[in-house]
UniProtKB/TrEMBL annotation:
Residues 2-336 form the RecF/RecN/SMC N-terminal domain. Gene3D superfamilies: P-loop containing nucleotide triphosphate hydrolases, RecF/RecN/SMC, N-terminal domain. ATP binds at G30, Q31, N32, A33, Q34, G35, K36, T37. It comes from Anaerovorax odorimutans. It comes from the Bacteria. This is DNA replication and repair protein RecF. The RecF protein is involved in DNA metabolism; it is required for DNA replication and normal SOS inducibility. RecF binds preferentially to single-stranded, linear DNA. It also seems to bind ATP. Signal peptide: none annotated. It is found in: Cytoplasm. Coiled coil: none annotated. Keywords: ATP-binding, Cytoplasm, DNA damage, DNA repair, DNA replication, DNA-binding, Nucleotide-binding, SOS response. PANTHER family: DNA REPLICATION AND REPAIR PROTEIN RECF (PTHR32182:SF0). Belongs to the RecF family. It holds the Pfam family SMC_N.
Amino acid sequence: MYIKEIQLKDFRNYKELNVQFHKNVNIFLGQNAQGKTNLLESIYITSMGKSFRTSKDREMIRFGEDFFRVKIKAFKDDDLVVEIAVNQEGKKGIKVDGVKARKLSQLLEQIYIVIFSPEDLRIVKDEPEKRRKFIDRELCQIKPSYYSNLNRYRKALLQRNAYLKEPRIDEGILDIWDSELAEYGSRIIVQRDAFVKKLSQMSSQIHKAITNQKEELEIFYEPSIELCGDQKNKFYEMLQKCRERDIRNRTTGKGPHKDDLLLKANGVDIRNFGSQGQQRTAALSLKLSEIRLIKEETGENPVLLLDDVLSELDQERQNFLIRSLSDTQIFITTTEISQQAIESLGEIRYFNIENGKIIS
């Protein structure tokens, strides 16, 4: 699949924009704070329904305006049109081929996108929340049922944690939230476990290729609740076991919101003991695996957004990344690009961006 065209109305620093893209490589050139990443963000929200930069949709509305609208035309077997609008009250409207979507999950299987930014290069060494977000973002795209389970789990967790802060706790009411958490949390654990096993296998192959067979990458799922055959009952029992501590701490201490990924290179935990080079190579392996997994699960090549990431990679890793993406539409933001990278990328369309406008 690939994106053909985008139309913006009052999105970030873009008043209006209508631009057609190349099906191979599109490079957005310009100085910092001119709107390059804003344009990538507008593409991204048509896939996930939200930003990769902020949790507040209203922040994407152009200053002084009442709403923003993004409309994208893509090709996936046939032409596909996705439109998203958000107003100052935070109300979001989504249309797919002109038909209003009742739920966000109806958007998730339409346009597949992988984002790769300098922040993603730190995913290995950063806090567990970043690695959980990586898993969630990927699984929500390829498994809409996961999005539903995750959404329901988060709502139940929010309500349980709010109740744990009450001066008096009725354990019968707490049982209701425990049942909800066990129901949806157990499903999340099972889906994450299956995903990480596939991710580990693919990442290992890619990592060996990047390091010329010198390093073997292994990825392990670290759930805060032990994996077992009856995951739902195990989850519920753990909540019962930890109830007194949760009441004392006024928060839920076990569940998918506490999970992590363990990454090892040649048996060494590279989250804590890996060099910067090892950590960045592992992050690159994860991202390329993400692309392959989407292709395997959906039959579609996702669109890749490279947000100022080439400058963060050395020439060898740049070359490997580019060689791996011959069938993938790529959008690149950068202040400058090397001649060697240009020669490796194939057909390119350039867009010079200045103050929210494409000037050539």
